[in-house]
Amino acid sequence: MRKIAMLGSGFIGRFYADSIQAHRSKDKIVSVYSRREQSARKFAEDYDVPHWTTEMEAAVNHPDVDMVCIALPNNLHEAAVMACVKAKKAVITTKPLGRNAEEAKRMLEAVEKAGIFNGYLEDLCYTPKFLKTLESVQGGALGRILWAKSRETHPGPHSEWFWDLEQAGGGCILDLGCHCVEISRNYIGKDIKPIEVMCWAETQVKPIPAEDHAIALVKYENGAIGQFEVSWTFRGGLDLRDEVMGTEGTVWVNNFLRTGLEMFTSGKGAHYVAEKAESNTGWLFPVGDELADLGYNHMFTDMFNACDEGREPRETFYDGYVVNAVLDAAYRSAKSRQWEPVKLEIWRGREGVQQESTLTDYDDQYYLIKEEVIHDGRTKVILKDKQSGKVIEKVTA
User: 90: burial class by Cβ within 10 Å (0-12, 13-18, 19+)?
Assistant: First the structure.
């Protein structure tokens, strides 16, 4: 059983609480911290939390607490982590780990020096569809991964601090790109080094100093490409989609928005439909189980079981640091309009990975470019001569 201090009582803290106190059933939030007394009181009342406070260290140091869950604005993550380090309490934190890689690196080094359990709450790397797809990818069903694309778009965040550049540290790249980068890293291989980024970002709609729309390519050392599309300007709800392409196959994943459950309503008896849904009339796309479909249940189960078993969870502060480093490069690229290197002062994956050969032998004389069955049932092969480079085709019965 985990006894948890929840730091933050807003939107994400409530999502976390719904999952923590419902899935394993035995875990309990015993203290909640909020900067606003009214919010702390309300959270404690709604989730039957015996202790609430407006002092962060009072929650972290509560004698019953053995794990701290950070659900605070980005600019408060480091202070919260350092309070956990001081108290020697296990810590799990919402994404992104830091506002930049420098902050993330300080947090990573601090928790590791203190020897405390640390988990990175990257829920979209725990959705059922993601986990099933990743199992297939790691089992070789798609062959060598060439391209992993992840998209997250919606009309914008719920809380005011996201729209403040100092508190948030960035716009949709930091808020949503952190999900997308880590999703692609998992598909391509977290031991494969991201080396450079090309990014376009712009403020197209919102009256804010940060970007509200961005698209980027992340080049990996083995030649694979990660791609993310993120936006706070998308109308229609929350759109979460992944595509993965390999030498032996392709997979398309739709985690949210159009997932097979569709409903039309005039609006009579209107109610909550799904996160970031913009309407409760007309054709709607309700979500069967948001906590499960967004990965929260699997995520907390992994975090708590890993802590119980003395092992690392699937997602750690190190992963959060790597993501922040990739996003830093994306921000530099958006300004320079050039490929920018990913600056990783700490790298624990493989080094010097070479791009695999694209050449497939057909026979001693030719490489195989393509093989297909044509409309009359015969088989056509397109070949390249190994010596001359000439491309030919052959049709066999």
Answer: buried
CB 40 within 8 Å of CB 52? yes
Residue 170 tokens read as 């960035």
Q: Which helix (H) or strand (E) holds 328?
A: helix 317-336
Distance CA(20)–CA(2), nearest Å, equals: 9
pLDDT along the chain (397 residues), means of 10: 96 94 85 97 97 98 98 98 98 98 98 98 96 96 96 93 94 98 98 98 96 98 97 93 96 88 77 70 82 93 96 98 98 98 98 88 94 91 95 89
Query: Quick check: pTM over 0.90?
Result: yes
Helices (H) and strands (E) in the chain, counts: 11, 18
Q: How many angstroms separate the Cα of 93 from the Cα of each of 57, 58, 117, 200?
A: 16, 18, 11, 28
Is-contact 91 68, C-beta < 8 A?
yes
DSSP annotation of 361: B
The upper half-sphere exposure of residue 155, i.e. CA atoms within 13 Å in the direction of its Cβ, equals: 10
The Cβ of residue 231 has, within 10 Å, a number of other Cβ atoms equal to: 23
CA 60 and chain centroid, separation: 26
DSSP 211: -
Joined together, the tokens standing for residue 168 give 């948030």
The 3-state DSSP class for residue 371 equals strand
Q: What is the DSSP string of 220-281?
A: ETTS-EEEEEEES---SS-EEEEEEEETTEEEEEEEESSSS--EEE-STT----STT---SS
Q: Which residue type is seen at 239?
A: D
User: How far is C-alpha 380 from the chain's CA centre?
Assistant: 42
